[in-house]
Each structure stands twice: as C-alpha cells, then as structure tokens.
UniProtKB/TrEMBL annotation:
GO terms for cellular component: plasma membrane. It is found in: Cell membrane. The keyword Transmembrane applies. It comes from Haladaptatus pallidirubidus. It is a multi-pass membrane protein. Converts cobyric acid to cobinamide by the addition of aminopropanol on the F carboxylic group. This is Probable cobalamin biosynthesis protein CobD. Pathway: Cofactor biosynthesis; adenosylcobalamin biosynthesis. The chain crosses the membrane at residues 51-71, 78-98. Keywords: Cell membrane, Cobalamin biosynthesis, Membrane, Transmembrane, Transmembrane helix. Belongs to the CobD/CbiB family.
Amino acid sequence: MTLYGLLAVAIAFLLDWLFMEPPTRVHPVVWFGKATAAADRGWSAPRETGVLIALGLPAIAAVAVGVLGQLALAVHPLIASILAGVVLFTTTSMRMLLETATEVTELTETNIETARVEIRALAGRDASSLSPGEVRSAVAESLSENLADGLVASLFAFALCAPVSLPLAAAAATWVKAVNTLDSMLGYRSKPVGWASARLDDIVMWIPSRLSAVLIAVGSGGVTVLSEARTWAHEPPSPNSGWPMATLSAVLDVRFEKPGVYALNSRASLPVAADVGEGVQIVRRASLLAYISTGVIAWF
C-alpha cells in the first residue's frame, strides 16, 4: 500500500504542475464553498449553529471522500491511489499562487491601479490606496501564508494518515481543506456564525503554519532566520499566519506591513519587485520540499 501512497502524492503534484486548478464547474472546493455560502445567513442562535457548521460540514465532506476511497480500494489499490491523488490535487494549490504572485508583482511596476485590483485574488484587504511597495508586501505575505493554508496543511494531514489507509488520508486532506474554506468564508468578527470555524482553523493550522516556516527557512538555504522570525511571528492578529510571514520577511530582509494592523521586520524597507521574485523562488522550493516529504512519509 505504501507505494500507492507515494503515487498519489506524485499524481497530485503533476496535476498541479500541468493544470493548476480543476475547472470551476467541477471543483469540489467550489461546491463546498456554495454549501458554506448557504449557511452564511442570520441564525437565531448563531454561535450554537456555528459549532454545528464547523463540525458538520467538514465531516460530511470527509466521510463522502472516505467512502469513495474505500469503494475504489475494493476495486484495486491503484484505483484508490489515483482517486487519492486527484483528491489531494483538489485540496492543494501552489502553481496558481506562484504565477498570480509573479503577475501582480510585475503590475506594480507597470500599472499600479490594475495591481491594486488583482491583489484581491491573493489578499483580502482594501488595496485602493496601497503604494506599490505595500502591494508587493501583500503579495509576499500571501505567498508565505498560502504555502501553509493552500498546501502544507492538506499534505500534512495526508502524510499522517497515508501509512494507515489511503481512503483515510484522502478524507483527512479533505477535512482540513474544508475547515480552511469555512474559516476563509465565515471566520470574521462581523459573522457570529463563523466564530467556531475560525477557532477550529486556528487549532488545525497550528502545526502546518510552523512547518511552513521551517520549509521556507530550509528552502532559503538555512534555518538561522527562524530565531529572528520568532520575534515578529506574534505581530499579526492570527496565532498562526505570522510564522511563515515572519520567516519569509527575515529571509528577504524586507518589511511586511498591513497598514494599521502590523509591521514585520519594521527596520527594513518594503519589498521591491526583485525581493518578491526571490520570495516566489523560495516558496517554490519550500513547496517541493513539502511534496517530497509527504511522498517519503506516505511511502514508508
């Protein structure tokens, strides 16, 4: 079974490299997002309902994938491996992030107005008055944060479970992605129904965010930056996102700033285009390390 786990990781990597994302009309995460949107409304008991949503929707998605995986396994382990690889592909994303980051960074030098619009695909902040350096900061922050949310979290869950069962591994990756999706759609102070989703995501992302920081450090050629990054990691309101962001900030020796909220490595200057380009390469190497590590664990 272990070789089939490695094959599943390889399939996910190749699909991401070749296609970036499944078509929207057949993307399971888009379907899950629609289910989440239906739950995003006024409830008479929003906090209690939020708990049911946070626990129920990811569980339903994970069970559905696990059942499909067991059916595939009953046919042949190779079928289960292919299905697990496709599931892992749909729950992770890296090439699109890297390409979008590169495109927006280039726009900061040629068309800042368009860059302010396009940054919304990466960072959920008001960019209407951001300077080119602040837009580039948002791009680099998103690079590091989405390494954790968009790749390492699901790979970590898959790696934990793959040596036991491929259907379980696919279900675990699905569950983590569903938790992330709930948080991204409901986890705001303005939405009482999302408080449980936000807290659950904080717990789920505790290890992946710190693993991502380590991967960024290793991808940059050393781990000494982690001690410096630790100094700034608690500046952002999130208990987790500061770790990969602070590490990339330390590696590049630039300031990451969300105006009025936080400034990481405040003594440094905002990133120029070349800094973000280097960040893209570092995150690309970190993502490759994540895939390789997951494949090795799944193999053994």
